[in-house]
Give the backbone structure.
Amino acid sequence: VIGAVDVGGTKVAVGVADAQGRLLAQDRFPTRPERGPDAVIAEIADRLRALGHPFTTVGVGCVGPLDLDEGLILSPPNFPGWDRVPLRRALEARLGLPVVIDNDANAAALAEYKLGAGQGAKILVYATVSTGIGGGILVDGKLVHGVGGGAGEFGHQTLVPDGPRCGCGNHGCLEALASGPAIVAAARKAGFERPDMHAGHVAEAAAAGDPIAGKVWEDAVEVLAIGLGNVITTLAPDRVVIGGGVAQAGDLLLRPLREALARRVRMVPMDRVDVRLAAHGADAGIFGAIAVGLPRA
Ligand SMILES: [Zn+2]
């Protein structure tokens, strides 16, 4: 049995799963990072034990930035006062068990490879399009971490030299142009509005023939295709899996995205690149943590 912990900015999910990655029990609670790392880590350990299934190892998916070599949380923007917190060692000390940690996007990529839409891929590119745009790359079933664990952050490739400022400090990143909030901002600017608007509203209105939403959606998909197309051109993956909230639009995203990729990518045979939606939607976090804790497939 594997313990799993998904640490997000607003909530923490804990779970236990069997050796096949099937969820046996789970729980969640608000992170409230302002109470400090010790209190949060103590609650994680207590809630995991309270699930009532003895586990032998723990996988953790966590918001970044992380130092993966040392198992540290560096200083996430929404975690005031957290700086180089030794999450892995602190959890190991509290639980008396080995803990494996990775960032949430890599964890979700690993979950798609081991338990989802990426199974059997030789080179897998996973992209999550949500509040941000992140991703993970697996080659022969192994995550590519790179220097400082920075591989797969293709949301932060520059696409427009003087484009909108991105949360990372750069301008014109893919994330600043085609993430959920970027799509909503573009729709608003163009005069399209819905109560509690999210990117799905834009996709649906576009499909229903709304010309303003149609143009905004078309532009967002095109810029996503440029960004993903660059990654495909670089890696020639046999599988691309798209997850995150914006991917909930399903075929409204996938169909035009495939068309644009076929147009943009000239050096890789796109008929041999299988572009799919992720198997794990809203539960990508906990399954990511489970996948991190599972032994290599
Ligand atoms: Zn950026």
